[in-house]
Design a protein that fits this description.
This protein is α/β, with parallel strands linked by helices. The chain has helices spanning 91-94, 110-119, 136-148, 163-169, 185-192, 197-209, 229-243, 268-280; strands at 2-3, 7-10, 13-16, 24-25, 36-39, 42-45, 50-51, 53-58, 72-77, 106-107, 124-127, 152-157, 175-179, 214-221, 249-253, 286-289, 299-300, 307-312, 315-318. An eight-stranded mixed beta sheet has the order 8-9-11-12-13-14-15-16. A three-stranded antiparallel beta sheet has the order 1-6-5, with no helix packed on it. A three-stranded antiparallel beta sheet has the order 2-3-4, with no helix packed on it. Helix 2 packs across helix 3 and helix 7 crosses helix 8 (268-280).
Length: 342
């Protein structure tokens, strides 16, 4: 058990200030996420150091395409989440209420996590699989050690965090890879049972413009829910306007699962159309994920169209990238942030 940050006593309960749910938690109870609760009148990080998943991944698997392309990250997951997405691929670890015994967990000290990354030859660490925001205290401790060891850090997140929470993460996080499920409330609620899509967008902007994090956005395109032209255009327009046209947008294929098992997979034509919408709305880099579409994950120079980085599966090849991370053909800006080169 570990004391949690951002807890404010209110009478006999404690208000958690980490995410917009703002749970008011009674003694012996947990918040919506299942990872934070009150014990002896104090907000505690109940899953601190409890790890469900560890894997060495290419950074492109997150997916992150414009930060250290071709590098490897040691990925860590725990349990719990602030959302309840109807198509969650990791529901076994996202839905347990903390350490309830339904998931095999191991205790891991932050120094052990960083040592694992170094021993595996990883250039960075990623907090992923379940929602890492709810593991604030462990992420901070691992992140501090990782930065001192020369490793970069990645958050793979639904982005549902308060400004106070994000400002704490900013000390140690380099990459904010955030899900933009929808920008209008109705599809957002249907997808993840959370009512405030604006909170995700506001903090993504804060991550990039206030804290200088590298931001990439992902939209899993779900038929009949967020695949309307109007919704996709609203997402793309918001990214281009509020985050900037150089912000990568990944449109990924939905696979039927859980509560949405009756829906069809996203048609490939819908994903290709979404990519065109992204370009029409001014984005420079739009990628198609979870689908084998030739060229769908290649980085094209927005100035001359040269394939600068070619990807297939998790194979990444820098084909026309200069030592200054520009297009080797025309010198155009590829909006890459490379702290390392494979």
């Amino acid at each position: 058990m570990h004391d949690a940050l951002l807890g404010t006593p209110e009478g006999e309960r404690v208000r958690c200030g980490l995410c917009p749910h703002a749970c008011l938690i009674a003694e012996g109870s947990r918040g919506v996420c299942g990872a934070r609760g009150v014990v002896d009148g104090i907000l505690r990080a109940l899953t601190y150091g409890l790890v469900s998943s560890v894997a060495l991944d290419p950074i492109e698997k997150k997916p992150v395409f414009h930060f250290c392309p071709g590098s490897k990250v040691m990925s860590f997951g725990s349990v719990g989440c602030t959302m309840r997405c109807g198509h969650c691929q990791n529901w076994q670890i996202s839905r347990p209420k903390g350490d309830d015994g339904s998931v095999a967990l191991r205790e891991m000290d932050p120094s052990e996590a960083v040592a694992l990354a170094q021993e595996a030859g990883a250039e960075g660490v990623a907090f992923t699989y379940n929602e890492p925001i709810i593991s604030l205290e462990w992420v901070l401790d691992v992140g501090r050690l990782a930065k001192r060891s020369g490793l970069f850090t990645v958050m793979v997140t639904n982005g549902y965090v308060t400004s106070a929470g994000l400002d704490l993460f900013a000390e140690v996080i380099d990459v904010w890879r955030v899900d933009i499920k929808a920008v209008t409330p109705e599809p957002f609620v249907r997808l993840c049972k959370v009512r405030h899509p604006e909170a995700v967008r506001e903090q993504a902007v804060r991550a990039k413009k206030v804290h200088g994090m590298h931001v990439e956005c992902v939209t899993n395109v779900v038929p009949t829910i967020n695949d309307a032209d109007s919704e996709l255009r609203a997402i793309a327009s918001w990214i281009a306007t509020d985050l900037g046209p150089d912000t990568p947008w990944h449109v990924t294929r939905f696979i039927p699962y859980l509560e949405f098992a009756s829906l069809p997979p996203t048609p490939l034509a819908t994903l290709e159309h979404a990519r065109e919408i992204g370009y029409e709305e001014g984005l420079s880099f739009v990628y198609i994920g979870n689908a084998d579409i030739p060229g769908g994950e290649d980085t094209l120079c927005p100035s001359c169209g040269t394939v600068a980085i070619r990807r297939r599966g998790y194979s990444t090849r820098l084909e026309a990238v200069s030592t200054e991370d520009k297009c080797a053909q025309c010198g155009g800006d590829l909006s890459l942030r490379t702290l390392c080169r494979s």
